[in-house]
Each structure stands twice: as C-alpha cells, then as structure tokens.
Amino acid sequence: MNPQVIVTDVQRPKLIPPKGASKVLLHSCCAPCSGEVMEAMLAAGIDYTIYFYNPNIHPKKEYEIRKDENKAFAEKFNIPFIDADYDMDNWFARAKGMEFEPERGIRCTMCFDMRFERTALYAHENGFPVITSSLGISRWKNMQQINDCGKRAAEKYPGLTYWDYNWRKGGGSQRMIEISKREQFYQQEYCGCAYSLRDSNAWRREHGRESIKIGTKYYGTEDKA
Ligand code: SF4
Questions:
Q1: Ligand 1 centroid to 143 CA: how many Å?
Q2: Any idea which positions bind [4Fe-4S] cluster (predicted)?
Q3: CATH of 21-184, one of 3.40.50.970, 3.20.20.70, 3.40.50.620, 3.40.50.10860
Q4: Domain map of the chain by residue range?
Q5: What are the tens digits of pLDDT across the range 83-130?
Q6: CB of 56 closer than 6 angstroms to any ligand 1 atom
Q7: Of all protein residues, whose CA lies closest to atom 4 belonging to ligand 1?
Q8: The pLDDT of residue 7
Q9: Would you say residue 204 has pLDDT above 50?
Q10: What are the residues whose beta carbons fall under 8 Å from the beta carbon of 220, sequence distance 6 or more?
Q11: What is the Rg, in whole angstroms, of the alpha carbon atoms belonging to the chain?
Q12: What is the pTM assigned to this prediction?
C-alpha cells in the first residue's frame, strides 16, 4: 500500500474488520461501487486485496470496461488486484430457467452465491480470514440478500468470516457518487447480466428512451459517444 496516497478527506466511522483480522479479501463488482469501500479501508490502514470475479457481466466489452477501470483504480493505490476467471458459460448454465426472474429475485441470489463461493474459496486457499464485497453499497441492491449469500459462502470454510459491514452508512453512498465523479468512472446503466440488459432496454423502449450504448457514459462528463 502506498502511504502517500490521498483519499477523500472525511471523518469516517472507525473501521475494524471482524475479530480484528489484519487481512481482508474484497470482492469487487466494479470501480464505482468499490471506490468508497477501497478508500474507507485505505483510510483505516486495512491490508486488503481486490478479487474481481464477475462472470455475470455481459457482453464481454462491458466486462472488460468494468474490470480494466477497477484494476486501474487499484493500481493507483498499489492495491493487489486478482483478475479471476470470466467463466460466463458456467454463469449462464446456473442461470438456466431463471432468465425471466426479476432483479432481486432468485437469479440474483444465484449470481451472488456464485461470486461469493469463488471469493470464499480463494480466501481459504490464500490465507485471508475475512471476505467482504462492494455489492451491497448500491441502493438498487437488497443488502440482506447479499449478506445472506456472503455468509453462506464463508460458512463452508472454518475460520473464514464474511464481513457484513454496511458501506452505505456514514455518508458512504454519497461518497460513492463523489468518488465516481472525481475519477470520471464509467457509468454502467444496467446491473450486469444479459437479462438485466434486456430488461433495462425494454423499460427504456416503454419510456421512449434510446437503448443502452455500452462504453459511452461516464460520471461527471458528457457522453463520450
Ligand atoms: S440482475 Fe444483476 S445480480 Fe441479478 S443476475 Fe443479473 S447481474 Fe446478477
């Protein structure tokens, strides 16, 4: 970690990982969601590694944009970044039969389970006593659903704890947006999977809006299209 790095200058709640653990594996879904989580852990002096495992993201172009941006932001802070598999075939296989489930439903439970299962396995194999995730910081997500999945995954390994810290509190949600604007992060317009893209576009059509154009919208800027 680079001690010279400047993070957002605010008073934050005191952040101590469960059982006073000295190492944390942070599952990250994207730079906008993890920006505040990363800065909060940096400010608290927590030694952490980012684990990017998101085979749900579709198409590949969107996946690469989200991953590369998250990686670049981690490099800024000298935070280790684990680029895990993009095993989307496995994701689609697990989503079979759930294609028309609504967001926050059983397909999303499967999706969170899958991502946490791999995160927990990596933590177990690489000596991380605690896992957590940026997934719950978005107000579009059901935090309880995410926490249940995280706990379920961690419980499989003795000594591994899922940290269910509420990253939204203490101004976290607001800082998430501020950091995204400051960094001009890519502004994704759907949750991530092919089905959320389909449903977001259907909603847009109904409301007379254009379909999503991947790779064109950035926080704090005009469209770069
Ligand atoms: S809507 Fe989001 S959380 Fe739900 S299955 Fe799709 S990518 Fe996963």
A1: 14
A2: 29-30, 108, 111
A3: 3.40.50.620
A4: 21-184
A5: 999 999 999 999 999 999 999 999 999 999 999 999 999 999 999 999
A6: yes
A7: 108
A8: 67
A9: yes
A10: 180, 181, 182, 184
A11: 17
A12: 0.94
Which two tokens mark 52? 């990017």
- The pLDDT of residue 225: 45
CA atoms of 114 and 172, how far apart (whole Å): 26
Q: Does ligand 1 lie within 6 Å of residue 108's CB atom?
A: yes
Q: Is the CB of 111 under 6 A from ligand 1?
A: yes
What number does the ligand 1 atom closest to the CA of 195 have? 6
From the list 176, 168, 179, 180, the residue with the least C-alpha distance to 219 is 180
* pLDDT tens figures, 153-167: 999 999 999 999 999
Between vectors from CA 125 to CA 121 and to CA 131, what angle results, nearest 5°? 55
Average pLDDT over residues 51-72: 98
Whether 193 is in the pocket of ligand 1, judged by its Cβ within 6 Å, is: yes
Q: Is the CB of 107 under 6 A from ligand 1?
A: yes
33 carries a ligand binding annotation? no
